[in-house]
Amino acid sequence: MNKIAKLRPQEGVRLDPDCLVALYAELGEVGAERVISAAMEELAVHLAAVQAAVLPGAAADPIAAARTLARLSRQVGMTSLARVAENVAQCAASGDPVSQAATLARLVRITNRSLSAVWDLQDIRL
After folding, report:
1. Burial of 33 by CB count in 10 Å (0-12 exposed, 13-18 middle, 19+ buried)?
2. Is residue 58 classed as helix, strand or coil in its secondary structure?
3. 14: which DSSP letter?
4. Hey, how many other C-beta atoms are within 10 angstroms of the C-beta on 126?
């Protein structure tokens, strides 16, 4: 009765490999890797912006920050990340702090797993 359960959510991520293949076909290996590296950095920056925007008294708009993250995610084929970022924007718009906190935690998990998945996929040499 006094046991505390610690939940460790595990959720797979979805990537659109066709998006990455198109980048490699259009830009070549070096160009695509530069674009993907820049996108990874931008995603990390925008995740931090979303986290900062949801803090009480923040001047930034969490809805806009989450939608920017979703747009960037789609550009490099991170479909799961884009969907969860849109969920964060919806929760922020609803004004429900509990759902916003839950989806933000999910966004952080999915971002970390998505970034790892893209790097792993790059190692396969599309």
Report:
1. middle
2. coil
3. -
4. 15
For residue 37, the one-letter residue type is S
Contact at 8 Å (CB) between 120 and 67?
no
Give strand pairing partners of 78.
15
So where are the chain's domains?
17-123
Which residues, 6+ apart, have CB-to-CB distance to 68 below 8 Å?
46, 49
Instruction: Give the global pTM.
Output: 0.81
- 3 state SS of 78: strand
* Furthest-apart CA atoms within the chain: distance in Å: 59
The per-residue pLDDT for range 9-36, each reduced to its tens digit, is 777 778 888 888 898 899 998 998 888 8
Cα separation, 82 vs 36, in Å, equals 16
Backbone dihedral region for residue 77 (phi beyond 0: left; psi -120 to 50: alpha; all else: beta)? left
The CB-side HSE value for 65 (13 A sphere, CA atoms) comes to: 22
Contact present, 14 and 84 (Cβ < 8 Å): no
